[in-house]
Design goal:
About 30% of the residues lie in helices and about 25% in strands. It is of the alpha/beta class.
Length: about 260
């Protein structure tokens, strides 16, 4: 049975009467709304990307490479040993929620797409997962809630660069005193995306994405270099170990400087 989940819906009228906003800020917000529309519409076909099906099937050799590299990340997550109260941001269809579940005493999964959350809840079918539909830039846990582990998969690259620092500062405020963070994201690799997607120059920060029905949407997509991302996080007061697989994935594990976990 599909579980109920808390909904904090996005308000699409937030630009009304706010012409004093800087043009760049307004454009960023418009792209983010379009990005949400894309992931809501993509929910039922999202797993085709992960499973290398349909437009994402690049042949047996590259499919095998993809799954081998995904296994490296999954093994790293197990070795990281998420624990306690776990928060997953941009939880999507549950690919990583399923991986986190065995380690959690409580698991909160947040996403802006109700459609993604419904698939996730149906996939797991467990009452211990608390689902929240919310704008990830506005949502805040209750004042007393702190998390031992915060995880996000393929979300960091969708953050507009101008919101990067604010996001990490907020994440720091949600962690328990010795809490930790794990993330996984995409590397810049043409064969990671659909066969009918054109990957622009690496410096591009807004990409055009297409659905199976050929509707197109703009999304924020930043392909970080490992050293660059490590430097940015260090400047913000984080200690991170970031790794890359051969072609497709970047993943990192870290904590706030001065709040080292016992197993650091």
């Amino acid at each position: 049975m599909l579980q109920d989940f808390t909904a904090e819906p996005l308000r699409r009228s937030k630009f009304d009467g706010m012409t004093e906003r800087l043009p760049q800020e307004k454009e960023t917000s418009l792209v983010l709304l379009e990005q949400l529309d894309y992931y809501r519409a993509r929910a039922t076909e999202y797993d085709q990307w992960w499973l290398r099906q349909g437009r994402y099937d690049r042949g047996p050799a590259l499919k095998a490479q993809w799954f081998a590299e995904a296994s490296v990340v999954q093994t790293a997550l197990v070795a990281f040993r998420p624990e306690g109260r776990i928060l997953e941001l941009a939880c999507g269809t549950g690919i990583w929620t399923e991986q986190l579940l065995p380690f959690a005493t409580e698991l909160t999964a947040v996403d802006g797409s109700r459609e993604m959350l419904a698939i996730n809840a149906a996939r797991l079918g467990l009452p211990m997962v608390r689902y929240i539909e919310a704008d990830l830039f506005r949502w805040r846990p209750a004042a007393e809630e702190r998390y031992d582990t915060i995880f996000f998969g393929f979300w960091l690259s969708h953050l507009p660069p101008e919101r990067f620092a604010q996001f990490w500062n907020v994440v720091a405020s949600w962690l328990a005193p010795r809490g930790r963070v794990f993330f996984v994201d995409s590397r810049y690799q043409e064969t990671s995306t659909a066969v009918d997607h054109i990957l622009p120059e690496r410096s591009a920060t807004v990409l055009q994405r297409r659905l199976n029905d050929r509707r197109e949407f703009r999304v924020d997509k930043i392909f970080y270099e490992r050293d660059e991302l490590t430097r940015h996080l260090t400047e913000l007061g984080w200690s991170f170990e970031i790794e890359e697989t051969t072609n497709y994935f970047m993943y990192g594990m870290g904590y706030r400087m001065g709040r080292e976990p016992d197993n650091a």
